Amino acid sequence: MKLFVASGLVFATSLVASATEPEQHAAWKDQGVIYLDHSLNARLHSVPVQAVHLSDGFWSARRKVTTERSLPTLLALLEEHGVVDNFRRLDGRPEIPRKGPLYTDSDLYKWIEAAAWAIASNETSEADKQMLRGDVESLITHIVAAQEPSGYLNTYFVGDKVHLRFTDLPHSHEDYCLGHLIQAGIAYYRATGSRRLLDASIRFADYVVENFGATKRPFVTGHPELEMALVELYRTTGDAKYLEFTRYLLSGVEKDRLKLKDADMRYMFSGKPFVSHTEFEGHAVRALYAASGATDYFTEAGDPAIRRTLDLLWTDLTTRKMYITGGVGSRSAGESFGDPYELPSEQAYAETCASVANVMWNFRLLLLTGDARYTDILERTLYNGVNSGMSLSGNLYCYRNPLASSGEKLRNPWYDTTCCPPNIERLFESLPGYFYAISRDGVYVNLYDNSEMDWHLEDGTGLTVSQATNYPWSGDVKVTVSPAHPAEFAVYLRWPGWASSAEVAINGQPIQTAAFRRGEYISLSRTWKPGDVINIAFPLQPTPMIANPRVADDYGRTALQRGPLVYALEQIDQNGVPLGDIFFRSSAPVTVEVRKELLGGITILRAPGSASEKLLSEEPLYTPMPAVPTRNKRPVILTFIPYYAIGNREPTPMEVWVPLSRFDGPPVAQTAGNVEHHF
Ligand code: FUB
Ligand code: ZN
Questions:
Q1: pLDDT averaged over the chain?
Q2: Cα(2)–Cα(11) distance, rounded to whole angstroms?
Q3: Over 594-650, what HEC string results?
């Protein structure tokens, strides 16, 4: 394989596209969610979904409900709302009307991608695999039939709208639908080896690459997404034209030819050179997909200006614009980022798709660098801002994921813009591929849960790594490392940023952790023998968190976190004390209670709080500040549930950030008169 290095570009030139497999490529089933074996800038290589089994535990339960409930009910709804018929209409059924917004094709493609990862997964039952495969094959038949000989494929821009094709790129979503088609095609190929959908996506991608570009018709991604997909297509086929087109998309050279307005470019987070961005702005999902695509491009091509921009954006996101849940997008208007520290709780948009994008972006950054700070954000977002997006029953979804509500219904089975449900499905179904990664010198354990990886080290030595744990309810994890034969390599275990300490022992012998720091990977290098056991323990303290005082909505408030889980109060658990009258007493101990029967099995937190004796709604709006706080308060016990589990009972007021009692008067007597609590 020849390496090509020019002006910061590093890539393999011998990878050529063809109908047959380039021999240096891993077989289809050996390719991860993103496939980095030939990505010269990637520190870590992903592990295929097929190679990781999530056994009984937190995420296997979420994946089970996704496979058994969410996928079938969502497909039925996509049928009911005409999303599949939109393709049938072009497959010999012209009498069927086209239904739904112009981007509905993408929802079906995302569903297919999710189904593909479910088919790839070895936890999915054979019966479910066969059913899903039957569904996907029949969908592909309609999709392929709807494709024009030129390769063009979109169910909206047909008939009397043909003349509108690619005339309004900032809004048409043709680029976005193509991106999701490519990703679905790749996922199904990696799950089954079938190229039918992949080849259809290649035909459309080739149509775009052949007709658009700096010396041809101008192109812009009105909704970034195609960037990620094209880089993955390059990784899958080895054809460098897809990487080159991504470079063109990120270059923003068409701003003048397309007469793009500044406001449009801010909203789309594209159009101008990617490297000219210094902060996140505009539509949150678009911006995070653009950053993910730029990360993919950098991972292959290595442009340092892109790397600098990614660093700037990540710092902007994580220090000024992200909710404690990992949710992103403060404003409903334009589904957009707000100003720095503009993070309202009740008005939060925090679209599920934006959280999914946050996970996807941080996964890419993790694989690029091996840096655990990205895994910390990935984990925070996955457990909270993403996980809240699908009900425990698997058939109701949040579009917005606010951090407070006055009791509105947060979950619905269907949205006319139904981008979020299949997005969360495709993430959950591909999740086994996020747990482990391989580096030149060993194996990374990114996420903790009962699981087994059956894969190999970079030099081909077979390796299984398994975990036994009750994470995230417990911080104890037993990791068993079994190379095919004794071998020297490193096992990297993540010390999460939220854990104040870590205890590690190998085969019962404690290891000094003084050299390691929280928020980093603990590297354990030695000659590993089959059956070696590492025990790692992180203390899971309920931790009251505060926000930077510049976040006006959170000032004087605290949010409880335990391990990776952010907690919330729901009104129905507070024994009639109005949420608006509740205060948190930070000095008093929080107790932990396992409730197997509640909300699918959760650990609740009970914290001493206080409530105003007089309903605050009966107090005047404004009063002179008293020299000494005088409000009479009575002690109450506050009952917190994990944020992801909100909205799974009757609609009820909810809040994550609870006012601190010490901001509102003298301490309340410790325990006398505590209110009894019953569920
Ligand atoms: O525009 C397509 C999708 O609809 C976006 O990704 C979501 O944010 C929603 O606007
Ligand atoms: Zn969405």
A1: 93
A2: 8
A3: EECCCCCCEEEEEEEEEEECCCHHHCCCCCCCCCCCCCCEEEEEEEEEEHHHCCCCC
Q: Per-residue pLDDT tens for 14-50?
A: 333 333 344 445 699 999 999 999 998 999 999 999 9
Nearest Cα residue to atom 3 of ligand 1: 419
φ, ψ for residue 576 (rounded to 5)? 85, -10
In this prediction, residue 630 carries a pLDDT of 72
- Segment among 309-313, 337-341, 588-592 with least mean pLDDT: 588-592
Query: Which residues, in sequence order, are CB contacts of 92 under 8 Å at separation 6+?
Result: 145
Q: Which residue, 163, 156, 237, 170, is CA-closest to 201?
A: 237
Measured distance CA(289)–CA(354) in Å, rounded: 9
Nearest to 419 by CA among 82, 109, 63, 178: 109
Ligand nearest to the backbone CA of 223? 1
Strand partners, 407: none
**Distant-in-sequence, close-in-space partners of 82: CB < 8 Å, separation ≥ 6:** 96, 97, 98, 99, 100, 104
Global pTM value: 0.94
Q: Which amino acid is at 238?
A: G
Q: Report the C-alpha gap between 240 and 234 in whole angstroms.
A: 6
pLDDT per position as a tens digit, 64-82: 999 999 999 999 999 999 9
Q: Look at residue 632 in the predicted model and tell me its pLDDT.
A: 85
Q: Say how far apart CA 641 and CA 562 lie, in whole Å.
A: 11
- Alpha-carbon dihedral sign for residues 323, 381, 288, 284: negative
Residue 202 CA to ligand 1 center (angstroms) comes to: 24
Q: Are 503 and 529 in contact (CB under 8 A)?
A: no
User: Which residues line ion ligand 2, judged by CB < 5 Å?
Assistant: 351, 353, 419-420
The Å distance, Cα 268 to ligand 1 centre, comes to 11
Q: What is the DSSP letter of 237?
A: H
Q: What does the alpha-carbon distance between residue 285 and residue 289 come to, in Å, rounded to a whole number?
A: 6
- Residue-wise pLDDT tens digits, 596-628: 999 999 999 999 999 998 899 998 899 888 777
Residues with Cβ within 8 Å of residue 98, at least 6 apart in sequence: 82, 86, 89, 155, 156, 158
CA distance 32 to 50: 9
SS3 string, 488-499, reads: EEEEEEEECCCC
Burial of 312 (C-beta count, 10 Å sphere; 0-12/13-18/19+) = middle
CB-neighbour burial class of residue 303 (10 A; exposed 0-12, middle 13-18, buried 19+): buried
List the chain domain ranges. 2-282+397-436, 440-537, 550-659
State how far the Cα of 103 lies from the Cα of 172, in Å rounded to an integer: 8
What lines the ligand 1 site, CB under 6 Å? 103, 223, 285, 335, 351, 353, 417, 419
How far apart are the C-alpha atoms of 318 and 405, rounded to whole Å?
A: 24
pLDDT of residue 4: 32
Q: 440-537 is classed in which CATH architecture? A: Sandwich (2.60)
Residue appearing with tokens 């909300």: 599
Which atom of ligand 1 is least distant from the CA of 286?
6
Burial 99-126 (b: 16+ CB within 10 A, else e): ebebbbbbbbbbbbbbbbbbbbbebbee
For 351-386, the three-class secondary structure string (H helix, E strand, C coil) is CHHHHHHHHHHHHHHHHHHCCHHHHHHHHHHHHHHH
